[in-house]
Amino acid sequence: MKSKFTINDIEINIKKFNSEDYISLTDMAKFSDAEHTGYVITRWLSTRYTVEFMGIWEKVNNPNFNVVEFYNIRNDSGSHNYVLSSKQWIEKTNAIGIISNAGRYGGTFAHKDIAFEFATWLSAEFKFWIIKEFQRLKEVEQKAIAWTAKRELARINYRIQTDAIKENLIVPALTDKQKSFVYADEADLLNVALFGKTACEWRAENPNEKGNIRDFATIQQLLVLANMESYNATLIGKKIAQSERLIELNNMARQQLKVLLEVDNRLLLPKGKDQNVEMVKKLK
Asked: Measured between alpha carbons, how far is residue 111 from residues 23, 28, 29, 81, 94 in Å?
């Protein structure tokens, strides 16, 4: 997985290695010298303070760290004309905190702990914005994960509902085409109860949007939708008519959305804010 953020027009890439975030030192070094990023990294890595910090990090996080070689490097570091490249550090100590790859999409990446230290050496202000942007990116990723989890929950609950339809509404006499109509009707039953429109009506109103009505749902709506699907399956099992279920489900949606929107009036999707305001107005 790869992501990135931009500071001072410098695009800084992030990669995942063993489920950990590694930030591109090559990109960060452009803040000091865009033409000689390798030299900038080597200068930083050759200092006594950097070597000691790197050694501590590796001892804590790397069971295969070559401590003997580390002590040799530490004794030589900081002396006049001493040079230590990232490649030498990795090969001599079996380090994992820094990863260096050649090629067009390569470069030197470091674990975020080490990358922040590099940012400190470059500039205190630069480090401040690196941390701020990194934290913002992580928050966005966590919200995206939460939205995906809610969407998956709705999908799973939809399977529960379709099973209930199969067992209670679809009789052997129906053709496959007729069965599909029943499923479509039940899906739109929930759409109307929650969104106030069918999937086709939403598509007609949003011809340029990719996806469907549920792809543009808020987290609150997806959570309510998951609850509605389970409840609809129960109502189907009780042989409740579709017209009656529509009223029940709409009341349920209005009640749950009102509670959720009063607790938290924030949405993940960029267009969600206006939609949220409209929902609050309708519920009052």
From this structure: 6, 13, 15, 27, 15
Give the domain extent around 96.
2-122
165 and 114 fall within a common domain: no
Q: pLDDT (tens digit, 9 = 90+) per residue, 82-97?
A: 888 889 999 999 999 9
284 vs 208, higher pLDDT: 208
135 within a domain of the structure (yes/no): no
pLDDT (0 to 100) of residue 150: 67
Strands (E), the chain: 2-7, 10-17, 20-24, 98-101, 107-111
144 and 72 in one domain? no
Do 148 and 246 belong to one domain?
A: yes
Task: Assign 153 a pLDDT band (cuts: 50, 70, 90).
Answer: low
**Euclidean distance between CA atoms 115 and 122, whole angstroms:** 11
Give the largest Cα separation in the chain, rounded. 90
Do residues 85 and 219 share a domain? no
Same domain, residue pair 104 and 172: no
pLDDT over threshold 90, residue 52: yes
Which residues lie closer than 8 Å to 267 by C-beta, 6 or more apart? 218, 219, 220, 273, 275, 276
C-alpha 118 chain-centroid distance: 26
Tokens for 90? 């990795």
Give pLDDT, residue 69.
92
